[in-house]
Amino acid sequence: MSVSVFDHPWLSALLGDAEISRCFTVEAELRAMLEFEVALAMAEAELGFIPVEAAQAIANAAMIFQPDPAALAAGVARDGMVAPDWVRQLREAVGTPHGQHVHFGSTSQDVLDTSLILRLRPALAILAARLNAFDSRLAALSADHGSIAAMARTRMQRALPITWADRIAAWRAPFARHQKRLQDLNPRLLVVQFGGPVGTLDKFGDKGPSVAAALASRLDLAVPAGAWHSARDVLAEFAGWLTLVTGSLGKIGQDIALLAQNEVADVTLAGAGQSSAMHHKQNPVLAETLVTLARFNAAQLSGMHQALVHEQERSGAAWTLEWMLLPQMVVATGAALARGLALLDALRIHDKH
Amino acid sequence: MSVSVFDHPWLSALLGDAEISRCFTVEAELRAMLEFEVALAMAEAELGFIPVEAAQAIANAAMIFQPDPAALAAGVARDGMVAPDWVRQLREAVGTPHGQHVHFGSTSQDVLDTSLILRLRPALAILAARLNAFDSRLAALSADHGSIAAMARTRMQRALPITWADRIAAWRAPFARHQKRLQDLNPRLLVVQFGGPVGTLDKFGDKGPSVAAALASRLDLAVPAGAWHSARDVLAEFAGWLTLVTGSLGKIGQDIALLAQNEVADVTLAGAGQSSAMHHKQNPVLAETLVTLARFNAAQLSGMHQALVHEQERSGAAWTLEWMLLPQMVVATGAALARGLALLDALRIHDKH
Amino acid sequence: MSVSVFDHPWLSALLGDAEISRCFTVEAELRAMLEFEVALAMAEAELGFIPVEAAQAIANAAMIFQPDPAALAAGVARDGMVAPDWVRQLREAVGTPHGQHVHFGSTSQDVLDTSLILRLRPALAILAARLNAFDSRLAALSADHGSIAAMARTRMQRALPITWADRIAAWRAPFARHQKRLQDLNPRLLVVQFGGPVGTLDKFGDKGPSVAAALASRLDLAVPAGAWHSARDVLAEFAGWLTLVTGSLGKIGQDIALLAQNEVADVTLAGAGQSSAMHHKQNPVLAETLVTLARFNAAQLSGMHQALVHEQERSGAAWTLEWMLLPQMVVATGAALARGLALLDALRIHDKH
Amino acid sequence: MSVSVFDHPWLSALLGDAEISRCFTVEAELRAMLEFEVALAMAEAELGFIPVEAAQAIANAAMIFQPDPAALAAGVARDGMVAPDWVRQLREAVGTPHGQHVHFGSTSQDVLDTSLILRLRPALAILAARLNAFDSRLAALSADHGSIAAMARTRMQRALPITWADRIAAWRAPFARHQKRLQDLNPRLLVVQFGGPVGTLDKFGDKGPSVAAALASRLDLAVPAGAWHSARDVLAEFAGWLTLVTGSLGKIGQDIALLAQNEVADVTLAGAGQSSAMHHKQNPVLAETLVTLARFNAAQLSGMHQALVHEQERSGAAWTLEWMLLPQMVVATGAALARGLALLDALRIHDKH
Fold this sequence. Notes:
homotetramer
């Protein structure tokens, strides 16, 4: 299918990101779900809630488990999420007598949210690396070309002379803040979800926190103050961070598209895009794409915040809305950083002022 | 890939729509693009702008043309859209001497926008049919169960007795308006895009309108007042219509989820969803999904209207933003109508008041 | 207070609209509410539901009724809307024995929604007149300067020569559609709201539609298919129309800001704005303002569509959200049209190409 | 005027906040602008850029300066912002020979952005205090009533027993994070804006940073890495924080509205709202208002992020958009916290399960 540009065989070459998208394949999703269930079984065995043999049987089955996709789809259509049918299939795969211990004390949202976090972790690492690379590339650009005279333009009019070092410093400023924000956000985001059916870990008596800690430790995630089934602020905050990043890149893209206008020509772009009808044109495609991705994320972000109004102990409607928005935002941000890097590579600054 | 729920093998079973999605496959897209180029060549031959033999050669080549997907992706990454490289490949496929006549006087946006309209046409037909079916199902529900006593609730509190006929009449009212709006919108939307590089059909002298009319006639589309390269109001209006439809369905979904609460139990839902942890539960999955899809479209709509600020004679940034938003909105609307029909089928009304 | 730019003594000179704002003063609101109650009493007396003397007493009291603002504010804080306390005060003002007949068979939402419609009516007339004036001004601009050579720019790059007539024709095209849409919308929008507590006019037996018709007739409004307490699609559609208009104006504003860049200078703007620091500058303030207002409305529109998910027979939360969004959107649209007219007056087109 | 609910004499009693609104009066705005100019003059005198006598004259004039509002409005309509005409008037008020030293080396955006920050500072203090109070009130509620049995509801269906302590713990969790986020954000937000016409403090040679530091010190603000004329990420981040807070409150409001349904009746609300037609009703007005304010901010936030695409060294269009959105978001957040506190006061929890 190719409803979304991110899943489209050629539009994704412009707007998508193959590397980040790998965090959102069904393979990655199923792998992360299994990782949760195996770690859960191990943690529960360690604390005596299920037999050690059961945990081992679950781990063994997980090595070769291949769920039936048609049954999963039918399950999602019926249950609103994949977990119930997938757990049923996994229990069958583990077989008697240990299958019954799969997913003990847990709930669908535990496995699905933790699976999301496990897949966001590598995505975050990629985004952080690209963010650093982008900032370094700007620093290098300034070092190489910062002394070139430029013309500041305010309210779309020529204002006063500046240098390219001035312009690049203004471009860079938010990126240092984005790096700091990501450091602040990471410990809030990279946490396990574990609450059981209603967030209270009711099957574990007073040992709930111990199981959560053991589970988190095996997944190398932090333990939050409690289950966050219905408190989705950290995901909305993360979506906001993504949108800040794409916004800062969109601003640079807009600037470069303006600077590359023929009449301005303060910059040209190597390898700029072709028109199907006008071969003399050099379209600032990468620069425009950064604007597009910024505006895309800004629209999605609104939906992520609407999803904070999450009814009661778990909302189907609000939770599902996140699934529609967040993966796209992560990929859009990866794409914007990748396109931004390519744009800086293509940028040729001219000494005109 | 499965970044988007609409392209995801199992989430699409809940949130997607296989039938509508077929309008957004790459196969459908390539077919519509070819349909445009063949019709264009025929129209241009008819009016003497290219040789009749060239038009025939283009039509023949189109029957078997298979573009190289890798080259298309590389073209999109470079040019910001698929048309330039695809036209180049099609010209090669037609070969010498007729290949040069492919796409004569046209521009990328002509073929891509017209391709979109050609694919929206069957999608609109499906949506209209489902809208009618949904309205009829509501009418039948009222005919069958309208006399059952109900309790009106305002501001989340019990108000006064009504009947189910009253409730269903309130649910139905917007759907009659949606049908009327769609009739008003259709002639604005189902139009050809044809302007040439800068919207003026400069290659055709004073025959531009004739070529446009001949082209539109072959595609069974209407002829707009002029090229709409930079005037995107009709697409934003269409996106608004989609969001009105999902909003009305979301309202019904929200109502049913509230009516199906255990303590209220004015309705139950046959085949309601399962929980992975609590087998006694009957989750109103379809009802919640309608709320999700309504809020999704409401977020996207904002982006479609941001894209109206379309720079100059053609904007890369704003146009590309539409590609990211509109196909998803059409599929979400199709899904909402399909899920809405299933929800009405599952609805069991109880006589409690 | 001046939290909003629309109510701010000097920012409203840029972003607001004094004429449209008069539809949203408390005086206009109270007047429209009284108009509803008087027309309702007259209609009910005509149909025998309340004594003729009561209707006359209500009409007389309405001539001089001055509600206590502090009590209204306290009422809103407690009841979530002004109607309950205002009706109580009006009943007191009418006095014994007729005061009890005020608001008979009606509900808060009837008077508040109808009051909104009564105030939107003059706003619509102003918007329609300005829309026509703007379109005519564009036509005159084309008649006067259409033959001037221009340069089309696509994807922010020079493309091919056009004329100003071509450019203005592209600008004008959506405005003809906006006029048509408004004609289609008007009969849906200019309708009375009258349903009683739960939308069924339960106090009137089978005479409900007759009372509604008599009420509507006195207010010179149309009668809708039924009460639209919970079906808010027409307001969302209207918000969409406003956003289409500001979007089309925003596109023109963006174009003019680009054309007025010093290096391009295809146009200059008479009376353009000053900088506090750079006296040589001529800022395209009106052009930028059109972009701002377009993006403002595009953000608000999303909220109007979120408000379609309106729970049950009447929702406090969703209804109140409309109050926060719609008046601002109407004023923003009025402002955009007024600024757009001023921008066209200031536009000086240069023959450079 | 009363276009906005925040400036409306009685709707503001429900949706506004008198205390926070005082930060957005024109008086507060003019006072903060003067505070900037006086501090600037003092800092510049201290570093020898203007005569000490001039700084003193400016400080003296500022004590009694009353700008002409009509001229300010005309200035805004012409210049797109108030600063140019206001500076002109202030220079006149200072008179010859010192008036010429007013605003030396500065630009409109310096005074207007710093004025915003100076007014956000008390608003932040109020928000922080209310956030702490709200969290403490939740803690007290849990201490007093936490042992009461409750019913968890997931996907709108009864799930399993919990306690009120469990529910309140889930409500509280985000508020600890909001407090932490605010601490992280404060040093980024409470900074001076000072860059001069194009962000480079060109009038001060290599002393620009010293002037900025002296200015900031006098205003008790921090010094950012550089002028942030065109890098608006911190304001968008702040808007995101506001929306996270209202989102968390909206979730609690939605929960309470659901719990207060007659059929559920796990809680009642003291002093709940009246209906104009149904006197038996107790409407959960405060709870609904929290939902409304959450959805309002979620819509505005999208616009704040669209404004990140800020052209070149200073954008009129994007900057102005912030003025339309941010003050309302701050007041909406203040209102949500105030209404949230009142809602907790009114909450009566019943022992039913």
